[in-house]
User: Fold these one by one.
Assistant:
Number 1:
Amino acid sequence: NPGEALKIMISGAPASGKGTQCELITQKYGLVHVAAGDLLRAEVAAGSDNGRLAKEFMEKGQLVPDEIVVMMVKERLSLPDAEENGWLLDGYPRSLSQATALKKFGFEPDLFILLEVPEDILVERVIGRRLDPVTGKIYHLKYSPPETEEIAARLTQRFDDTEEKVKLRLRTHHQNVEAVLSMFKDITVKIDGNGSKEDVFAQIDGWLTKLLEQRKATSESL
Ligand code: AP5
């Protein structure tokens, strides 16, 4: 729809680089980043009933039940900032039922980005990942080390970032990915996620630029 804010979904295996690319995309395009995993971790940290229940599934690398996830994402997408600036939905939908639920609420993306990365690389990325609790920035001990000693000293690790747990998360991903992709076939772009983060972003940036140009051309011809 010409003139409307962009609506993008980004998907891919655990540690394929979704969060990293979302930082770069929001910087350039000003979309509101809505990450299902971040929303869930916020519930866990708040110690709510939903958070306690969610943590049990997250620790096993399984999908948190729809009863919790669907409304949480729907409510975040319904806030005025997402409506106004457009949204970038990360890590949702992860099942056919989640995809259907969102559609029913009227949320349809313009583009579905799938990041593709070989499995041995994913495991290495998970094990080296660290997070800065102050800025929310994602680091990797080898590929994206912290800029200063001060940041290095405060980095934390996610509770599900172990080799054992990432294998469970990968299994869950493989069980569900085809069903989700089948719903977004017509608007899916597959991105080679196995380059540097700048190279991966250049590919995504190319698609988003193209999408905006197409819209501009459509609105000018109306
Ligand atoms: P979630 O938080 O979404 O985890 P995930 O899908 O496993 O993805 P990650 O956050 O691990 O990775 P990412 O792709 O964002 O990679 P990142 O950019 O950090 O979900 C966690 C759990 O919550 C799930 O297991 C499930 O239980 C639950 N959940 C979430 N959504 C749900 C839903 N919809 N329904 C039900 N349950 C749900 O990068 C990883 C590392 O690699 C970093 O260290 C980074 O610095 C590095 N890196 C990134 N890009 C590159 C590159 N190009 N080169 C080298 N290193 C790189």
Note: The first strand starts at residue 7 and ends at 12.
Number 2:
Amino acid sequence: GQVFKLEDYRPNDYLIPETSLTFRLSPESTRVTAVLTIERRDGVAVSAPLVLDGDGLTLLRIAIDGRELAPADFLATPDLLTIVKPPATARFQLLLETELAPARNEALMGLYRSSNVYCTQCEAEGFRRITYFLDRPDILSIYTVRIEARHNEAPLLLSNGNPAGSGDLAEGWHYAVWHDPFPKPSYLFALVAGALGKLADSFTTMSGRKVELGIYVEPGKEQLAGYAMDALKRSMRWDEEAFGREYDLDVFNIVAVSDFNMGAMENKGLNIFNDKYVLADQETATDADFANIEAIIAHEYFHNWTGNRITCRDWFQLCLKEGLTVFRDHEFSADQRSRAVKRIAEVRTLRAHQFPEDQGPLAHPVRPRRYREINNFYTATVYEKGSEVVRMIRTIVGAETFRAGMDLYFERHDGQAATIEDFIKVFEDVSGRDLSQFSLWYHQAGTPNLTISSAHNPASGEFTLEIEQSVPPTPSESRKRLMHIPLAFGLVGADGKPVAWRDVEGASVEDGVIHIRKRRHMVRFSGVAERPALSLNRGFSAPVTLSVEQKADDQFFLAGHDSDAFSRWQAFNTLLTDALIAAFRQILGGEQPAFTARLTGLAGKIAGDETLEPAYRALALALPGEADIARDLGRNIDPDAIFEGRQALAIAIAAANREMFAGLYDRLADKDAFSPDAASAGRRALRNILLDYLSLLPEGAALAARHFESATNMTDRAAALTVLALRHSGSPEAVKALADFEAKYASDALVMDKWFQIQASVPGPRTVEAVRALTSHPAFSIANPNRVRSLIGTFSSANQTGFHSADGEGYRFFAETVLQVEKRNPQVAARLATALRSWRSLEPGRQAKAREALLSIANAENLSADLRDIVERTLA
Ligand code: BAL
Ligand code: ZN
């Protein structure tokens, strides 16, 4: 396939300042008439051909300035339209008529049908499946859209912008017109038509303009959109307060659909959502679902400024809108919830998804330099690491200057398609700093490592740090340049208070941050009388790994006393990780793993520490995942031994704290009416992790069964079902709970996703057969992305012992299923296939079987560009 390169960017010869679209909707035969105002750019030769993108299109009619074109005047293939000799005038009108079959569009890109609702997805390159166009983000156009449909089939007709007329037509048809005054790229175009219920509300902006808000859902589910609506209004207010950004249209609409490739999409004024991120109540949604809804509603809304008003020049700049918008939604959630808890959760996610990507064959810079299929770059690196890079800019320039930089960004680039260079420049301009070394974070792939050792000299009162940075090689980048790494730190005294120093030399240290720029720094603090405990990468100031020789005493001390909540959590998590790695080695050596009473005792202390938020305690008690341990080990992975060690540690912690955990579990029982707020969710999280521990002790299955029976909300019910299915697989209690859950929620697809997910997570080599059988369950559908992700995605990316079963059966099933999904939906298949990206870190037996499975995909006939790209890079 074709490779697209950043250095090849050049503006197109033509612009499309205005786009007028008319849709006459029908499931099998929709007519699209596009009238494009085309403008030749200044200085471009009159002879320059006009070449428009298409994807699988059928052209019915083509005319320029009212005259039909002769066959010799153009060349139309399904994927390209070339107008050999456009008119000599600088501006002309091109009319195109195409015909589509939305009902048969199973790739869910372009215009398609989801449960009888017409909807669109155009990012990244879906608009070219609707009409021929300059389908690239630097072509900004003002859209007017007329939608015609049968009234009984689609009483509701929506597009971007503001409503601009509607009425009835002959033979039971009707129409609506929408006009969006803000020039936008084609990937932000959207259309929705169907029979939907509406939850209506309004928001008055900071300048006093009233905006009509609507959330459209399957009729009868309107009340399930209440939390999303509340999150939307809080997001709108927050963006005014935190960034001075006001909403700009008269209406803001959100539509929930049940077949959607992504989580949601930020189309101007008409966000389209995967219904999983809109619909919620206590009966059907977990606390994690509520938090995700809040975050994603905010994320898509925040795109209105970071993405829509200022968009990307080309797809290499994807992180310009995504990393920045993730940063904004993280800050929003931190303000709405607990900042410390949110930060810990973000870092866990980054390490679970981005670190393995950065350390494997799919590693790429936050701003990639080449791609074959842009859909494969909606990655944890672009999104999550992209957000971390923005966070580091704020750390370096300071919060106030950061805000000034953002103001300048909006002022300077509003209405433009911008680049990462534009973004970095505003912060250089407002701060007067040189960010050129820092900008390597955008250009260089790989997770930097810092090796740090410390020494204290009581005689001279000197405390010295030796810091060495390195960035491991990544595909096509074998030699790395030195990074600017802002490392927040603290020197903690025996009383838990910060230790003062007189002077520091060796690196610039500002506001508790060491600025590492060279390969090696020797940082010397003077005037330090007593040896402090060293607290490093506070708040996770830089997305790096650390290799630190640190005494266990110091880790235990920091786990109890670090004033930085993130680092305190980190200290305990490091102790747990070290213990799990030691256990893994003991098991491989044929020994029983053993854990210190000091460690299991500390778990009990943290659980019962009433000075800490319950949500924090719950996060601290959640052991590093099997995949986290595998990532830290890095090579020769045997998932069964990892599982065994982790299970042994969980049992040791449960046994050592049995009474304390049981008492706390009882006290935390919810007595108040349900609320999805962060504090209530935190109490449920703590109680449910205590249940998980207690379930490992005798009578554990009975306890979990009681928890399941008495649950009054989905968080508790799903937690108990998880404990039963995973810890007591095959027990009568587990079998009964799974059957009861299935009977109760059989008709609720989103809740059944949890049922699929839980069963796909059951550890052990027999799960593959259970998952295979579930693909025939009436609630499962290989055509629906949520179903596929819940069952197949969970099995392959979140079940270490099941997927990586030593006989290779998990891989064989996986390869078959990926190819089945691909026939309909290449994008979802390609995403699934990334589950094997870390195959080279497995022990040799599994490695060989994983490679066979990858080769069986690579050798399949008619492989899509999406899947071929992932599989070939994974095998390279
Ligand atoms: N732009 C794709 C969906 C999102 O990141 O908001
Ligand atoms: Zn986004």
Note: The first strand starts at residue 4 and ends at 5.
